[in-house]
Write a structure and sequence with these properties.
Layout (H helix, E strand, L loop, with lengths): L2 H30 L6 H31 L28 H16 L10 E3 L9 E3 L1 H11 L6 H11 L6 E7 L3 E6 L1 H14 L10 E5 L11 H19 L3 E6 L7 H12 L13 H14 L1 H15 L3 H24 L5 E2 L8 H11 L4 E3 L2 E4 L13 E4 L7 H15 L4 E5 L5 H13 L9 E4 L4 E2 L16 H18 L8 H21 L7 E2 L2 H4 L7 H17 L4 H11 L6 H10 L2 H11 L3 H20 L3 E3 L5 E4 L1 H20 L9
Parallel strand pairs: 5-6, 5-11, 6-7, 11-12, 13-14
Antiparallel strand pairs: 1-2, 2-4, 3-4, 8-9, 9-10, 15-16
Helix pairs in contact: 1-2, 1-4, 3-5, 4-5, 6-20, 8-9, 8-10, 8-11, 9-10, 12-13, 13-14, 15-16, 18-23, 19-23, 20-22, 20-23, 22-23
The protein binds arginine.
Length: 685
């Protein structure tokens, strides 16, 4: 058998074995305990399954490397340093990521149990709702047992699990570990550590988990001048704002950029039309408030009047030569649009710096020259194009059009100049683009071309944060009843009206002051639009429905905002002041007596893990799900545990300060999540 055939055989057999093991595992779980198979459990299992599959790929690659190195023993992989473990509880800070700590503990255990395995898989996951399976699980034993079998070592997962257990160092995070089923390690978290962490958060607030600081460019919103900012831009705006907030919370250096469509041939016809309609435009500001209509008129003329078309082209030439009159006209048009966009940003609490395509005007010829000199451009019917992979032109992806046949530049050219600027001048380290899924390929090609040209190097890459289209309740493209595209400002107005009716329907107008009512109305209206957008996996299309987003039951902003105000009011209605609460709590501390209190405490502790996950994959629905989970687990706690006991007449007879404090920390965590999601909270609603 050739070396190649051996490799293939080894891989196939390993892949088969691992697949068998995964299947056996699923089978065993489903047979072992039927209560295990609630929907969330299945989700979790398939999640684990995915992780195992990923490990498999990693392992296969490792085997690959090993077998290809087998003739060169000097090329052995250097062993990594073992992670250092926390042994002293007093050194633990409130921002600790529990799951990472557990990973460290088990990495030490696994590597000392199996020193001959390179990079053994350390798989730690949450155990799900059944307390019988511990709080977390280490599921490495199955995969390790397969690895050993491939090396002809006779063993089974349970034996491996026991070996790992024997080598697990003691840790202040872990109360005990049990080997269960075919080889799971069930981990029970130490109560003392949860108390310690929550105490530290009460003392110094919620601190971000520690990460290496990076300069991150977030390209979002990016509407086009003279055109309506549409619901697609709304999604980009909402998602981009939250991603920026999240990364800022992690103390990254975030640059929020609005890549406005503010340059290009359409300005020729706009300026030509402006010259005809408002020849006085240099002296007085023309009433082109409805720029949209103005744009339509000029487009119509452009398509039907030959003379106008010619003049429009001349206007582009003049503009691009920076002729002052034309620049004045262009600025005027941009300004009208910008003011409109800014009104939307103000309403939605969005902060962004305008840096439109025009900014790159001077930089475009430079990048074109660089590409020409590098021999990356090809001629194609008068245009100059760039392929991402000239040896594989049939990969289904089109080339970038770098120079048009008339010598002009395109969206592609400006994006090439943009990435070059962001790498070389902005010194960015992460490049995030929040743009609709329709442009996914554009960014794949852009990344590859920028890499080919040496603009993007090493692990610098374009991170495309795509999202699906907004649909109406009829599951068709979101339109008004009359079939027009929806004006964003009108959509937000409708949100305000709807949220007010909802509040009135619940009689809130009789309880709140006019000022409070207005605050609640805005928080609910904008909050529900944002939350509905972000609580779904962004890659999917999403159905815009005010009825659904304003439902006060289920996973909606309204429900969660209500939940938060209710939690905040618990201490207030018990007539316990913040000072009193702090003083009494100082005496009691946290007492996790009831299972429901304990469960809530552990959910709160997952915050750093969630934040780090979202900062990595930029899927905000994970944060929304977490927020919803906090509120569900809180409700469970509140139903089961008295915080305040009252007699028949409503007089407070007993206050449980530990529980009241748990309410306070819960509210603090929820507020932090809302803040990252860009959703305003209110004291009363
Ligand atoms: N203005 C573009 C549009 O409306 C989005 C720009 C996204 N950013 C970028 N660097 N291409 O589709």
């Amino acid at each position: 058998m050739s070396e190649e055939e051996k490799k293939v055989e080894l891989r196939t057999s390993l892949a088969e074995k691992a697949a068998d093991a995964i299947e056996a595992e699923l089978d065993m779980i489903s047979k072992g305990d039927l209560s295990y198979i609630g929907d969330p459990e299945l989700d979790k299992l398939s999640n684990q399954n995915e992780k195992l599959k990923h490990r498999l790929v990693v392992l296969e690659n490792a085997i690959d490397t090993e077998s290809s190195c087998s003739n060169a023993p000097s090329a052995k992989v250097k062993p990594k340093n073992l992670p250092s473990l926390i042994t002293d509880i007093s050194s633990v800070e409130g921002n600790i990521c529990l799951v990472d700590e557990l990973k460290n503990v088990f990495e030490v255990a696994i590597r000392s149990a199996y020193p001959n395995l390179d990079d053994p898989p350390v798989v730690i996951s949450l155990s799900g709702s059944n307390p019988k399976f511990g709080d977390y699980q280490c599921n490495s034993a199955m995969a390790i047992s397969q690895l050993l079998k491939a090396k002809n070592v006779k063993t089974n997962p349970r034996e491996v699990a026991n070996n790992i257990l024997n080598k697990t160092p003691s840790s202040p995070f872990i109360e005990r570990i049990e080997v269960a089923g075919a080889g799971f390690l069930n981990i029970y978290i130490n109560k003392a550590i949860v108390e310690h962490i929550l105490n530290s958060i009460l003392r110094s607030g919620i601190k971000p988990p520690k990460v290496k600081r990076q300069r991150v460019i977030v390209d979002f919103s990016a509407p086009n001048i003279a055109k309506e900012m549409h619901v697609g831009h709304l999604r980009s705006t909402i998602i981009g704002e939250s991603i920026s907030r999240l990364l800022e919370f992690l103390e990254h250096d975030v640059v929020r950029l609005n890549h406005l469509g503010d340059w290009g041939t359409q300005f020729g016809m706009l300026i030509a039309h402006l010259q005809d309609k408002f020849p006085d435009f240099k002296k007085t500001s023309p009433p082109i408030a409805d720029l949209q209509a103005f744009y339509k008129e000029s487009k119509k003329r452009f398509d039907s009047e030959e003379d106008f078309k010619k003049r429009a082209y001349q206007c582009v030439v003049q503009l691009q030569a920076f002729h002052p009159d034309y620049i004045t006209a262009w600025k005027l048009i941009c300004e009208v649009s910008r003011q409109e966009f800014q009104r939307i940003y103000d309403r939605l609490d969005v902060t962004i710096i305008d840096r439109g395509e025009s900014f790159y005007h001077d930089r475009m010829p430079k990048v074109v020259k660089q590409l020409k000199d590098g021999g990356f451009l090809e001629e194609d019917n008068g245009r100059l194009i760039m392929w991402m992979d000239p040896d594989n032109k049939k990969n289904g992806l089109i080339p970038l059009t770098v120079v048009k046949s008339d010598g002009g530049f395109t969206y592609d050219t400006s994006d090439l100049a943009t990435i070059k600027h962001r790498v070389e001048e902005e010194k960015g380290e992460r490049f995030i683009y929040v743009v609709d899924n329709g442009q996914a390929n554009h960014f794949v090609i852009l990344d590859a071309c920028a890499r080919r040209a040496g603009i993007l190097k090493g692990d610098h890459k374009i991170e495309f944060v795509g999202f699906g289209v907004v649909l109406g309740e009829d599951k068709k493209k979101f339109k008004t009843r009359s079939g027009d595209t929806i004006k964003l400002s009108e959509l937000l107005d409708e949100g305000l009206n709807r949220s007010l009716s909802k509040l009135i329907e619940k009689g809130r107008d009789k309880i709140l002051t006019p000022e409070e009512l207005k605050q609640a109305q805005e928080a609910v209206a904008y909050g529900c639009i944002k939350y509905a957008d972000m609580s779904h996996n962004r890659l999917n299309d999403y159905v815009f429905s005010f009825d659904k987003m304003l439902d006060d039951k289920g996973n909606t902003a309204v429900y969660l905002l209500y939940a938060l105000t209710r939690i905040r009011s618990i201490a207030r209605t018990a007539q316990v002041s913040q000072e009193q609460l702090k003083a009494e709590f100082a005496k009691t501390g946290f007492q996790f007596e009831h299972e429901a209190e304990w469960k809530l405490g552990k959910v709160l502790l997952r915050f750093p893990e969630i934040i780090l996950k979202v900062a990595n994959d930029l899927f905000l629905h994970t944060l929304c799900e977490y927020l919803y989970e906090i509120s569900s687990v809180f409700t469970e706690f509140y139903d089961k545990c008295y915080c305040v006991e009252k007699d028949k007449d409503g007089n407070v007879i007993k206050v449980n300060y530990s529980r009241l404090m748990l309410c306070e920390v819960t509210a603090t965590f929820m507020e932090k999540c809302f803040d990252i999601l860009g959703i305003r909270t209110v004291a009363k609603m």
